[in-house]
Design goal:
The protein is α/β, with parallel strands linked by helices. The protein has a single domain, classed as Rossmann fold, CATH 3.40.50. It is built from eleven helices and five strands; from the N terminus they run βααβααβαβαααβααα. The protein has helices spanning about 15-25, 25-30, 40-55, 60-75, 105-125, 140-150, 160-165, 170-180, 200-205, 225-240, 245-255, and strands spanning about 5-10, 35-40, 85-90, 130-135, 185-190. A five-stranded parallel β-sheet has the order 2-3-1-4-5, sandwiched between helices. Helix 4 packs across helix 5 (about 105-125) and helix 10 (about 225-240) packs antiparallel against helix 11. The protein is globular. This is Sulfotransferase family protein.
Length: about 260
């Protein structure tokens, strides 16, 4: 039987960054128990970029690159290592809603199916492949809107953004499609509202709950600064200010305390 692998492929704005920072700063404690690959890491970056490209331009060629990069990534694994493998990269679900013309997570089930097939091809064992998706029941679109305001100069108001990308917030529909493709028994999911901390579901899936008390827990990452900062950023983004002047004004807003 091949090594067990769990892919945490998102979704964006569901505690992913907090989870990844927690795993990163606790590497020494965790590595004897699990092999970890995180968003932004060198070895996962080519596969993540392939999924992003497929998300923005679904075609035969971009689909083939996802398979190729997944096979290459998995070929680097030592299949005799008894530790499970855990990968956390929200880019494996595709683009952030509103980025690169992507309005929802439609490509996500296709991408994870391709990645699962690559794992099966490399290892010969489909049943050792599992996925985990963190979700969010409320406030998700508002959190996405905040992220777009501060990083991509979004000019939509919160209400406009919520109306335009409402379909992206239906995480349940995407999860159901993924369960149909992979098999429900291989799909883990939990809402952010039900987690004491984003690392808790991962420890449970990996059977490492006994390590929780030993973890160094960092502050939550990428949290909103509140409605005043949201309004200030939106107003700034709509002004005809560019270059360093814009960056300085944005930085001043982001230094506000919530």
């Amino acid at each position: 039987m091949a090594r067990r692998i769990i892919i945490h492929a998102g979704f964006h704005k569901t505690g992913t960054k907090t989870l990844q920072e927690t795993l990163s700063i606790n590497t020494a404690l965790l590595l004897p128990h699990v092999e970890i690959y995180l968003q932004g890491g060198a070895l996962i970056s080519s596969l993540a970029q392939a999924v992003l490209s497929f998300s923005g331009n679904r075609c035969k060629d971009t689909k083939a690159v996802v398979s190729e990069q997944a096979e290459l990534f998995f070929s680097l694994m030592d299949l005799t290592d008894p530790r499970p493998i855990f990968v956390s990269s929200e880019s494996l679900s595709g683009h952030f809603p509103g980025s690169a013309g992507v309005a929802k997570y439609g490509p996500a089930p296709i991408a994870i199916d391709l990645i699962r097939d690559a794992w099966t091809k490399v290892t010969g064992d489909q049943n050792s492949f599992e996925v985990y998706y963190s979700t969010r029941r409320s406030g998700w679109l508002a959190s996405c809107h905040w992220q777009r305001l501060k990083t991509n100069r979004n000019m939509l108001s919160l209400s406009e953004y919520c109306e335009k990308y409402a379909q992206a917030a239906d995480h349940g529909a995407i999860i159901d499609t993924i369960k149909t493709r992979l098999g429900a028994q291989f799909v883990h999911t939990q809402a952010l509202e039900d987690m004491p901390h984003p690392v808790d579901p991962v420890l449970e899936i990996l059977n490492l709950g006994h390590l929780k008390s030993q973890l160094d827990i960092p502050p939550n990452a990428n949290t909103s600064l509140g409605e005043t900062a949201r309004a200030d950023l939106l107003a700034l983004n709509r002004q005809k200010i560019w270059g360093q002047d814009y960056k300085k004004a944005r930085a001043a807003i982001l230094r506000q305390k919530p």
